[in-house]
Structures are given as C-alpha cells and as structure tokens.
C-alpha cells in the first residue's frame, strides 16, 4: 500500500519506518526542522534505540521518502496516517478535507494523534462532507499512540496490544491487515469505537500517573514511620490484584506526552461537569515530589545551602531520552539556584537540551564525565536512572566528592552498601 504519514512526533517516525520495513511505500511528511530531514548527514541526532538505522535502511531501499509537512498526499495514496502533535488538529482537518473527491471506496485515514476525545469522529464527518465526495467512501479510525520513548520501536513492532477504534467492519479489517506483521505472536488487537479508543489511551496514562503518585505518597509516609518502602513495594507487587508495574517511588515523573495526557483527562472530566479531584491531586503530588531531593538536602545542611556545589546525575525526563520536557531535574535545579547553589550536571544525552533551556549561567556547569561533575561537590543527586549510574565506582566517587552525600531520587542504590562505603545516603522512603 501507499502510506502518507504526517507528523514530527516520535510516533510518526516509528510508524513510517516500521511500515516501510514490511514492504509498504511510505512518504513521511515532516516540518523543515525535523530530524528526519538529516537522515543522510552527519548531523542526524535521533537517539531512539534502533530507529535511526531502520530509517536509514528504508530510505536507501526507496520504500521511505521524506516530504514537507505542508504537501498534500499523493494521488496514489491509499492510507493517510496522522501522527501529529496534539496542537495540530487543524492541520489534520485540512489534510482530510483536501483529499480528492474520487478516493478509493476503502480509503483509510489512521488517526494516531493524541487529540481530544471525539476528534476521530469529527475527522470522519469532515471526510464524508467534502464537496463532491461519495459519503460511502473512506473511513477514519483511531489507533492511539501507546509508545514509550526509549522503547518506541520495540513497542510498535512487538506490542502487548493495539487499540483500534473503528465504526465500520471493513476499516477494522484493513487496520488489522496493516498491523498483521506486528501481530503474529497472538492477536493483540482490541476493537472498539473510535472515542472509546481515544479515551482508553488517556485513561491508561491517568491510571499509571495515579499509581506513581500514590507510591510517592507512601514513600514520604514511610520516611516518617521508619519503614523501608522497598519492602512495602515488593509486598504490594506480590499481590496479584495490584501487580508490580509503576510501583516504584521516585522524585516525580516528567515527559511532555505523559503529563499532557493526564492534564487532558482532567480537563475532559471538568468540561463534562464532573469533578477531577483525584487527577488534580495526582498532578499536585507529582509537582511536590519533584522537590523531594531538595527538601532532604535542605534539612541535611540545616537550610545553609548558599555557596555549596551540588552534582546532578541525569536530567532527561526518563532514561534513553534526550528530552527534558517537564523533567523533575528542572524544578530541582531552579530550587538549588534560588539558594545560591552552583549546580554541576552530567547526562548521557540531554545536556544540549539543558543548555538551551538554561542559557549561559555561572551557576550551571555541564560535564561530559559523571565523576568530573561530582568532583569537589557537597552532594550528589541522582535524578534519572540511566543504566550507567547503577553501579558507579563508589570508591572513586567517595574520593572525588568534598562531602560523601548521596541523594538517590530513583532508589537504584542499596542503602546498606553505600553507607558501608562511607557515604551518607537519602533515598525516597528508603532505610
């Protein structure tokens, strides 16, 4: 089939590359600043595991081409695939309304964008109401983006499940055919109405955020009760009614899509005349949690922080990402700056984004080496749990630091071990 994929999102890049790899002819439409335009140059900076080689390979075979975002689909297009940013609903309507009147009877529009609930149905009406169009031709389906950054390609090619929202049987069958190469282990496609698929995606992220914030609340309570939250987490996860996923307390969650989905769900509740108290509290807990390491440092030094040097390991909103959208580290850095602290930072990928966010400052020093960032500091805060931070040379770290104080925002280190190594240690509800 001939697919025209629109969007600068990670979802668009993954979908285009994966579909091209199975034999489809794919045109990926992106804006001028998209990383996809640098596939053949040394400036290509896409860091998503496995995605860059796949995109380059598909482009070289001729199955994947890149075109501007403002170019309408080619006449040979049989599937219009929308993986646009949430603020591009207007563009989605223009693309659908700009389709020729004589499209194939089974012309398919796949909406993978995170638009408000009901947007797929609105796009369906726009498709059918085009001047001169046959109202029996074409369908818009919802296939929500369930990908997670750092594992997006695997999430598309080996998914646990797919949500497919369609109102017509032939559209459901055609989507199943498109996804067939990635749906062989078992049938993971869950069929439902379009607005049910859209709402399910938001509800999933709302539940995950709720679990994270609940565990952060429990970890803060554990601190006051002299309880180790790790034992509590293991006990909770062993209960099959609860399970282990998203029970890890920490210094808050970030990410543009995750936070935005939770806020979108809360907004949807409010606009429906319902109270969004739970989700509002979830978001408030998360914002408070982003300052948890700062509060521990504040108490340790008896509020005397001015002039101190503090190292931060990890500023990306999650491992395997170069993005810092709503990252906990940003709020933490601002709190440290407000107290006159000089901040030294290491991150495997996110330093360019941090430099752009912060601008030139004397109280921010970026390091390519984690031990250089920790040298002569009064504390080391671990904020993003990159694998390279899990087992550092604690002997070297102890020798490098002015004060051997570790604040573990992800509970990845063993408190007993690091204390025996000569460190003072604070985790999130750890003992």
Automatic annotation (TrEMBL):
Keywords: NAD, Oxidoreductase. Its EC number is 1.1.1.22. SUPFAM superfamilies: 6-phosphogluconate dehydrogenase C-terminal domain-like (SSF48179), NAD(P)-binding Rossmann-fold domains (SSF51735), UDP-glucose/GDP-mannose dehydrogenase C-terminal domain (SSF52413). Residues 311-415 form the UDP-glucose/GDP-mannose dehydrogenase C-terminal domain. The keyword Oxidoreductase applies. Pfam families: UDPG_MGDP_dh, UDPG_MGDP_dh_C, UDPG_MGDP_dh_N. It comes from the Bacteria. NAD(+) binds at residues 114, 149. Transmembrane segments: none annotated. One of its GO terms (molecular function) is UDP-glucose 6-dehydrogenase activity. Substrate binds at residues 201, 246-250, 254, 318. Pathway: Nucleotide-sugar biosynthesis; UDP-alpha-D-glucuronate biosynthesis; UDP-alpha-D-glucuronate from UDP-alpha-D-glucose: step 1/1. PANTHER family: UDP-GLUCOSE 6-DEHYDROGENASE TUAD (PTHR43750). Belongs to the UDP-glucose/GDP-mannose dehydrogenase family. This is UDP-glucose 6-dehydrogenase.
């Amino acid at each position: 089939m001939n697919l025209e994929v629109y969007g600068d999102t990670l979802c668009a890049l993954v979908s285009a590359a994966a579909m091209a790899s199975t034999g489809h002819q794919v045109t990926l439409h992106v804006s001028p600043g998209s990383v996809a335009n640098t596939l053949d140059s040394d400036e290509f900076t896409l860091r998503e595991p496995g995605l860059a080689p796949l995109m380059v390979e598909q482009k070289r075979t001729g199955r994947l081409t890149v075109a501007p975002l403002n170019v309408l689909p080619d006449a040979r297009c049989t599937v219009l695939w929308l993986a646009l940013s949430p603020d591009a609903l207007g563009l989605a309507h223009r693309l659908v309304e700009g389709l020729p009147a004589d499209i194939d009877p089974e012309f398919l529009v796949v909406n993978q964008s995170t638009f408000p609930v009901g947007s797929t149905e609105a796009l369906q009406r726009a498709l059918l109401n085009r001047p001169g169009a046959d109202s029996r031709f074409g369908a818009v389906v919802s296939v929500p983006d369930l990908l997670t950054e750092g594992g997006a390609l695997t999430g598309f090619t080996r998914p646990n499940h797919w949500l497919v929202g369609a109102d017509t049987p032939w559209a459901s069958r055609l989507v199943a055919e498109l996804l067939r190469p990635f749906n062989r282990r078992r049938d993971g496609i869950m069929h439902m109405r379009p607005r049910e698929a859209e709402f399910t995606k938001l509800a999933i992220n709302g539940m995950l955020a709720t679990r994270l914030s609940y565990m952060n609340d429990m970890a803060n309570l554990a601190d006051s009760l002299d309880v180790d939250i790790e034992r509590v987490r293991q006990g909770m996860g062993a209960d099959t009614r609860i399970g282990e996923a998203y029970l890890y307390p920490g210094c808050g969650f970030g990410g543009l899509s995750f936070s935005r989905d939770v806020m979108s769900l809360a907004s949807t509740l409010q606009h429906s005349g319902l109270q969004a108290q739970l989700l509002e509290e979830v978001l408030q807990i998360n914002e408070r949690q982003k300052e948890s390491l700062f509060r521990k440092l504040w108490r340790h030094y008896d509020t005397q922080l001015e002039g101190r040097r503090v190292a931060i390991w990890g500023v990306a909103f999650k491992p395997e990402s170069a993005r810092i959208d709503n990252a906990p580290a940003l709020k933490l850095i601002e709190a440290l700056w407000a107290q006159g602290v000089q901040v030294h930072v290491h991150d495997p990928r996110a330093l360019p984004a941090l430099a752009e966010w912060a601008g030139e400052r004397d109280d921010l020093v970026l390091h390519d080496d984690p031990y250089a960032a920790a040298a002569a500091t009064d504390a080391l805060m671990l904020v993003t749990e990159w694998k390279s931070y899990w087992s550092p040379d604690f002997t070297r770290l102890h020798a490098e630091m002015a004060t051997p104080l570790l604040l573990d925002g992800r509970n990845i280190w063993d408190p007993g071990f690091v204390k025996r190594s000569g460190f003072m240690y604070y985790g999130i509800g750890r003992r």
